């Protein structure tokens, strides 16, 4: 989404040198750092990190951590990481909270491809010397543990084919469990964690056709605890991730005291994927552009960096 410098103009050595220069002297030149890293894609950022380490024998991320602070430092560090490593860190941070943030875990498990999830789990194991599933089981309990371990353990089929007979049968299974309020039943978790996204969307569509309401509306009838919220998040992330992310952004911005963690997470993780479409949905649903909303609810270098990723300069 950010305006990316063209490959012909890109020089990782020059960028590394300019970032180092911005970190020297009496004060850090945050605008210079934003003007570089806020306009580089995944491949370019990787080359800059390599060049920085080769020239200065220092880790660029450590340099940024020493020179910057607050939400801006966290956001630009997350942006500079490789996506799988970034998601591994986000998952770890989500589990370290007093109440683990299941939303970040579900997003990682349910919005990407099976290969994306596998890469995150490898990065997590490399970083923390434990599996993601092991930590999930340690930091959660009860039904939400069963759900989160199941969706992160899965390696779903990634094709477009689906079986309508299976969709019809499992739409009935889901309706029965929702109607009977048996949300902790193994079948619900089995279906949501193992079926392909194409198969699940066929099931969700049939559920609505047969029963006259969407499955998420059915799930709203459950208690307002983390498990039921996590179930709805799994369905929304599989059914329409762009719509889900637009809603996360609206909630993050409109809550008393902006939820910077959620705001940063969505903009940074979606910037090189589908942020343009998320912005369009946000505008349609809120009658205000995401650029304006972020500009109003954030400030300083953090605001400037997010707006650079949004392409709002």
From TrEMBL:
It comes from the Eukaryota. Ca(2+) 2 binds at residues 253, 257, 297. InterPro entries: Annexin (IPR001464), Annexin_repeat (IPR018502), Annexin_repeat_CS (IPR018252), Annexin_sf (IPR037104), AnnexinD_plant (IPR009118). Transmembrane segments: none annotated. Ca(2+) 1 binds at residues 25, 27, 67. Keywords: Annexin, Calcium, Calcium/phospholipid-binding, Metal-binding, Repeat. One of its GO terms (molecular function) is calcium-dependent phospholipid binding. Gene3D superfamilies: Annexin. GO terms for cellular component: cytoplasm; plasma membrane. The keyword Repeat applies. GO terms for biological process: defense response to bacterium; response to cold; response to heat; response to salt stress; response to water deprivation. A pair of annexin repeats may form one binding site for calcium and phospholipid. Belongs to the annexin family. This is Annexin. It comes from Theobroma cacao.
């Amino acid at each position: 989404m950010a305006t990316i410098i063209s490959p012909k103009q890109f020089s990782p050595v020059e960028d590394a040198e300019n970032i180092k220069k911005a970190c020297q002297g009496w004060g850090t030149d945050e605008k210079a750092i934003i003007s570089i890293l806020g306009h580089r894609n995944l491949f370019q950022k990787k080359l800059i990190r390599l060049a920085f380490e080769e020239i200065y024998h220092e880790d660029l991320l450590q340099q940024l951590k020493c020179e910057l602070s607050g939400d801006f430092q966290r956001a630009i560090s997350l942006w500079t990481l490789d996506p799988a490593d970034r998601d591994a860190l986000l998952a770890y941070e989500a589990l370290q909270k007093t109440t683990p943030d299941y939303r970040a875990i579900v997003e990682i498990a349910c919005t990407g491809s099976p290969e994306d999830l596998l890469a995150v789990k490898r990065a997590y194991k490399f970083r923390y010397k434990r599996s993601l599933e092991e930590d999930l089981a340690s930091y959660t309990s009860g039904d939400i543990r069963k759900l989160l371990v199941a969706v992160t353990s899965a390696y779903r089929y990634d094709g477009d084919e689906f079986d309508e007979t299976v969709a019809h049968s499992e739409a009935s299974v889901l309706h029965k469990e929702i109607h009977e309020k048996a949300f902790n039943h193994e079948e619900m978790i089995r279906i949501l964690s193992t079926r392909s996204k194409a198969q699940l969307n066929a099931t969700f569509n049939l559920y609505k056709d047969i029963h006259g309401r969407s499955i998420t509306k059915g799930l709203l009838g459950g208690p307002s605890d983390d498990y039921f919220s996590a179930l709805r998040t799994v369905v929304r992330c599989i059914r329409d991730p762009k719509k889900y992310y637009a809603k996360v952004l609206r909630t993050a911005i409109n809550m008393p005291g902006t939820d910077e963690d959620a705001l940063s997470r969505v903009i940074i993780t979606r910037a090189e994927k589908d942020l343009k479409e998320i912005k369009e949905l946000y505008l349609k649903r809120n009658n205000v552009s995401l650029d304006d909303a972020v500009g109003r609810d954030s400030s300083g270098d953090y605001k400037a960096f997010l707006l650079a990723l949004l392409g709002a300069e």
